[in-house]
Design brief:
- This protein has 341 residues and is α/β, with parallel strands linked by helices.
- Helices cover 44% and strands 14% of the residues.
- It has 13 helices and eleven strands.
- Strands 2-1-3-10-4 form a five-stranded mixed β-sheet. A three-stranded mixed β-sheet has the order 5-9-11, covered by helices on one side. A three-stranded parallel β-sheet has the order 7-6-8, with helices on one face.
- It is globular, with a radius of gyration of 20 Å.
């Protein structure tokens, strides 16, 4: 990580323009506001273009009363520095992941990635609305002078590997690149030989045998950056489920009229839904291409995912002991998991 696992992998996905929201504000009904936000991906990435569309839609649907400058990662500060920049008035908000701020509060660590806790992202994402996740997000953000708006979809990830990893036993001694942090800790507990390597060195390390596998992103993005040319197995172990969100400086958010807050929430849910559709399509397309090119997809059984989940829980328990909000996040997730079965 700078981290959210190396900027949630510096790539991402085209924005599905077909998902729209009907919420429009009459130009005569609101004071004008200009806000400056920063995303977590590069200007050329399709996900950042989705963020730019989010800003454009807000301006149009607010009748020009809400203008957001959507900066790419590094446009003002590094991805782990947006909270400081918001506090200093350099930024008014961000589209980011809580995991970038893990060093600030263990609550950010466990809110920003649920690891192997859930079988699917869809089940995990129900937690935000059905299990009180958004309320906890607001509480966590408020403790740091921020206002949490809502979660934005991000997919589960696959592991490009040079070996057909069938389960936890195959992680023992495995040379796998995982950036420092939450995921690296539970892979280490599972017996992997965790390597901290910059993203730009991963492909050559796989080719040369320095690495056996790498933690990276979802199939579409893994394929896009060419990792399957060096790693002929794609491991679906439900090992990592990052989270991203929209948030603002608390004072800036509270200064907005209710109708603009509602519009921002509506458009946040719209970008999330659109990205979900597009990412799923990109992943399906990539998986089909990978299979035609001789890449084997290895999907772990529930039993093996459960073994990795036990290591995830050990790390979560240690984090829960470090802060009350981290404990609250973990307990809430576990209660929700029992509820949905």
């Amino acid at each position: 990580m700078t981290t959210r696992r190396t900027v949630l992998k510096t790539g991402a996905y085209a924005f599905a323009v077909g998902v729209a929201s009907p919420f429009v504000i009459s130009p005569s009904r609101a004071q004008s506001f200009s806000l400056r936000m920063q995303g977590f991906l590069a200007a050329a990435s399709p996900t950042h273009r989705a963020f730019e569309k989010f800003a454009a839609d807000l301006k149009e649907k607010s009748g020009g009363k809400l203008a957001i400058q959507a900066l790419p990662v590094g446009g003002a500060v590094g991805p782990a520095e947006t909270i400081n920049a918001i506090a200093a008035g350099i930024l008014d908000g961000h589209y980011s992941s809580s995991s970038f701020f893990a060093a600030r509060d263990p609550g950010f660590t466990v809110f920003g990635d649920t690891g192997a806790s859930y079988d699917t992202v869809d089940a995990r994402d129900r937690w935000y609305l059905e299990g009180g996740g958004e309320d906890i997000g607001r509480e966590l953000y408020a403790q740091h002078g921020l206002a949490y708006v809502a979660n934005v979809f991000w997919p589960s990830e696959h592991i490009p590997a040079k070996k057909p990893l069938k389960g936890v036993a195959d992680l023992k001694g495995l040379k796998i690149r995982v950036p420092p942090g939450f995921v690296a800790e539970y892979f280490g507990k599972a017996g992997a030989s965790v390597v901290n390597l910059p993203g730009g060195e991963v492909f050559n390390a796989l080719q040369s045998g320095v690495l056996d596998a790498t933690d990276w992103a979802s199939p579409g993005q893994n394929y896009e950056v060419g990792l399957y040319k060096a790693a002929k197995f794609s491991i679906d172990a439900a090992h990592s489920m990052p989270a991203t969100e929209i948030g603002f400086a608390k004072a800036k958010w509270e200064a907005l009229p209710a109708e603009l807050k509602q519009l921002i929430l509506t458009e946040t849910r719209a970008i999330s839904a659109a990205l979900k559709l597009q990412i799923r399509k990109d992943d399906d397309d990539a998986l089909a291409k990978m299979k035609s090119e001789g890449v084997e997809i290895v999907t772990w059984s529930k039993e093996e995912i459960g073994k990795l989940r036990a290591f995830t829980a050990e790390v979560q328990d240690a984090l829960a002991a470090k802060g009350p909000i981290a404990k609250k996040v973990i307990e809430s997730h576990r209660a929700f998991q029992k509820k949905i079965g």
